[in-house]
Write a structure and sequence with these properties.
Elements lengths: L1 H8 L6 E4 L2 E4 L3 E11 L4 E8 L12 E4 L23 E4 L1 E2 L2 E5 L5 H10 L3 E2 L1 H10 L3 H4 L1 E6 L1
Antiparallel strand pairs: 1-2, 3-4, 3-10, 4-6, 5-6, 7-8, 9-10
């Protein structure tokens, strides 16, 4: 009884918790966005696909965590030094291009990523994507591509 009440009224940060000696895995939701990054190799701006956190499942092997370079000399360089294990605005998860791993997956190649995700058990939450893209005018949702469940 206590476990049921405890689970019902308290949120658990981890995605896995114990209930009656069985493991229940909750669905993970990821946000895919179009982001501008500065590619230091050739000092060019790139529109790439980013994901909000390290994914679980097969997609994990297709993601790389990088430090977001400052796009402007007017940005505070001191605040852009963190890329540690904690969540930080200066780091972003990008998808390396499978055809050219030294480059990042361009927005134009989204269909390749979509094919991989669907083929590996991820689903696109088009209802939430449509709802937020139509009702939210915030800058953070302007570059939203979609929500993905796993």
């Amino acid at each position: 009884m206590w476990k049921e009440w405890h689970i019902k009224y308290f949120s658990f940060p981890p995605s896995i918790f114990m209930l009656s000696n069985s493991i229940i895995q909750m669905t993970q939701v990821y946000t895919l966005k179009k982001s501008v990054i500065l590619d230091k190799r050739d000092n060019q701006y790139r529109h790439v696909i980013t994901i909000n956190k390290e994914p679980q499942g097969p997609l994990k092997s297709r993601v790389k965590r990088i430090r977001r370079e400052t796009l402007s000399p007017f940005q505070d360089a001191f605040s852009r030094n963190c890329c540690g294990p904690s969540s930080c605005d200066t780091c972003v998860y990008v998808f390396p291009d499978p055809e050219n791993p030294s480059c990042y997956l361009d927005v134009e190649k989204f269909s390749d990523l979509l094919e991989f995700m669907i083929g590996n058990g991820y689903t696109i939450d088009d209802t939430a994507t449509r709802l937020l893209s139509q009702t939210t005018n915030s800058v953070s949702m302007r570059d939203l591509i979609c929500f993905v469940k796993y």
